[in-house]
Amino acid sequence: VHNNKKCYCCSFEDYKLTTEWLLNQTSHRPKIAVICGSGLGLLAAAATDKQTFHYQDIPNFPVSTVAGHEGCLVFGTIGGKSCVFMQGHFHLYEGYSLCQVTFPVRVFRMMGVDTLVVTNASGGICPDFKVGDIMIIKDHINLPGFAGQHPLCGPNDERFGIRFPCMSDAYCKELRRLALDISVELGCEGFVREGVYCMVSGPNFETIAEARMLMVLGSDSVGMSTVPEVTVAKHCGLRVFGLSLITNKVSLDYSREEKVNHEEVLQISKMRAEVLQKVVTTLICRCSQDQSINTH
Ligand SMILES: O=P(O)(O)O[C@@H]1C[C@H](O)[C@@H](CO)O1
Ligand code: HPA
């Protein structure tokens, strides 16, 4: 209860309880957290010394309700670095509050994580994008946020971050550059792009008029996740890197016959999961770990 008004946000004690529970259950002390989007749970496969928890067994954790989201938290080691992978993340359209959607991010922060890698599936709006392209997220548009569906609305807890955080540098420039270099080394630069991800709440895919509006707004791709997690991560001082897999082309034309569906999204994710895994794994191995988290 804040200011005599009932607050539906998670309390500091909720985050603390989950953090302490996890720290008691595992000897891993991750510095890097990876959120695996639709069909991308394989990103955890390269880790060694793995320890897996089902979301339903973790106190306060929401559970995954969408196909392609396994609902497991996997601790492991990559290139000597301790990591934690979320195989599946949470969405507004599942009925979760943005506090629940972003709950794991603050837990990771409290566990000592300093870098968050986000991945997702999205529809390509930029006419140059092809199905199967990997988009390094350069920036985002928080469309639900414009309408007040924002994870930082409500009383601000200064223990996590400041009231009015800066978002103009949400996606770390150095990590974006490193990822571009890695894509050249891996020979996949032909389908690696940079662009702006726009979040909508879903669950329906866009109408043609909506898609045209998103293009005018400057969106290169559209999806239903990630922005709340990135916003909360930035608020609590984490360094963020993001990859979005273009699983379909968004219809911008009334004469286009193809109809997008979730099965197609999962099929393309499966097709590209291995390349994405190589990029993420190499990035983890190569990224500097002298990152000092901003404390507020
Ligand atoms: O990786 P996410 O969960 O953002 O994947 C997108 C958005 C929906 O969850 C789903 C629609 O097919 O894919
Ligand atoms: O076309 C899309 N729109 C919104 N979300 C998505 N996630 C994958 N593809 C899409």
Automatic annotation (TrEMBL):
Known partners and oligomeric status: Homotrimer.
EC id: 2.4.2.1
Pathway noted in the entry: Purine metabolism; purine nucleoside salvage
UniProt entry keywords in alphabetical sequence: Glycosyltransferase, Purine salvage, Transferase
CDD domains in UniProt: PNP-EcPNPII_like (cd09009)
Domain Nucleoside phosphorylase, first and last residues per copy: 31-284
Native source species: Myripristis murdjan (pinecone soldierfish)
Keyword Disulfide bond in annotation: no
Protein name as catalogued: Purine nucleoside phosphorylase
Gene giving rise to this polypeptide: pnp4b
A Gene Ontology term for the protein's cellular component: cytoplasm
InterPro entries xrefs: Nucleoside_phosphorylase_d (IPR000845), Nucleoside_phosphorylase_sf (IPR035994), Pur_Nuc_Pase_Ino/Guo-sp (IPR011270), Purine_phosphorylase (IPR011268), Purine_phosphorylase-2_CS (IPR018099)
